[in-house]
Design a protein that fits this description.
The protein starts with 7 loop residues before the first helix and ends with a helix. Strands 1-3-2 form a 3-stranded antiparallel β-sheet. The chain is mostly helical. It is built from 11 helices and 3 strands. It is elongated. It has helices at 8-25, 38-55, 57-61, 71-93, 101-133, 139-157, 162-173, 181-186, 200-203, 226-233, 242-303; strands spanning 192-196, 208-211, 217-221. Helix 2 packs antiparallel against helix 4 and helix 10 packs antiparallel against helix 11. The longest helix is centred in the last third of the chain and has 62 residues, at 242-303. Strand 2 (208-211) and strand 3 (217-221) form a beta hairpin.
């Protein structure tokens, strides 16, 4: 978008800013620079038309049969002309601000532009990171691999002693993915697992969370699945038979792989959450800006 047609709209934006500055400088004599001069009206008209046109990008993106330029071209113009709008609107009001609806419209415009910059940063950086995180696959592929690992882990846990089996199976059942907005955006993990009191010492470092439903067992925090991995790992030196040791070793390896897949899933959710979040800010602010612009224009022509 930024390099579309060798930065065509960058030069358009630069030319617009230069013309706006020249027009602004033509105010001479004793006349105080403000939005009520003929220069101010011209700059205000240009700014208003820009705002309306910039708001139409969402409509253009959904008109798949439209022949009015490519969406990529519209997006490139949206970025550069939206940035130039900040210069044009500032010169329109001639740096005169106050506690009124006119300044409110200006502040909303600035908020829309800043949120647009944030969205641009996210859209430029996140897609590549998402593809790398998925290793060229999809989120469904990650969940399919997680399901396969869960099946294998349950099978291996069934060949261990009851305390180890309880820890592994409960860690799978009590794994939390996603959740509320905060957990999605920051990848917070509220997973737990159940351990018997006989082996709670190893996992107790994760922090006890209260009594569990099963007698003689307790629930401990299992953020990032580390408590489950530590619990099974610390049973390895105490394995009485070579076969049991081999099963525990395979289980640790599998749990570590499961930990990595869960990290990638949570990261995918987090990146997609940030990718969408800015729209929930940018679009409502844009609608509020259009409303404030209408009020600004009506107040100007009615009272001025």
């Amino acid at each position: 978008m930024l390099r579309y047609r060798r930065g065509r709209y960058l030069w358009w934006a630069v030319a617009l800013c230069v013309l706006a500055a020249i027009l602004y400088s033509t105010t001479t004599g004793l006349e105080r620079r403000n939005g009520g001069t003929w220069q101010g009206y011209v700059l205000g008209t240009v700014a208003a038309l820009l705002i309306v046109w910039l708001s139409s990008l969402g409509i253009r993106k959904r008109r798949y049969s439209s022949s009015l330029g490519s969406v990529q071209g519209w997006a490139s113009a949206h970025i550069y002309l939206g940035t130039a709008l900040l210069v044009v609107a500032t010169l329109h009001c001639a740096f005169n601000f106050g506690w009124n609806v006119h300044t409110l419209a200006y502040l909303l415009m600035v908020a829309v532009i800043v949120s647009g910059f944030c969205g641009l940063y996210v859209y430029i950086n996140s897609p590549g990171i998402i593809v790398d995180n998925r290793s060229g696959g999809s989120r469904a592929t990650l969940f399919a691999e997680l399901f396969e690992l869960d099946t294998q882990a349950r099978d291996l846990a069934g060949r261990c002693d009851p305390t180890a089996a309880l820890a592994v199976k409960s860690s799978i059942e009590r794994t939390v993915i996603g959740g509320g907005v905060f957990r999605q955006l920051f990848g917070a993990d509220n997973s737990w697992l159940m351990v018997s009191d006989a082996g709670a010492g190893a996992a107790g470092a994760a922090g006890a969370a209260g009594a569990a439903g099963a007698a003689g067992a307790k629930i401990v925090a299992n953020a990032d699945q580390q408590a489950a991995i530590d619990y099974i790992s610390q049973r390895l030196p105490r394995a009485e038979k070579r076969a049991e040791s081999a099963v525990l070793q395979s289980l640790v390896t599998l749990l570590c792989r499961r930990q990595m897949i869960l990290r990638r899933i949570r990261r995918d959710i987090r990146l997609n959450g940030w990718l969408r979040l800015w729209l929930y800010v940018h679009v409502p602010l844009s609608i509020a800006l259009l409303a404030a612009l209408i009020v600004h224009i009506l107040v100007t022509f009615i009272y001025w």
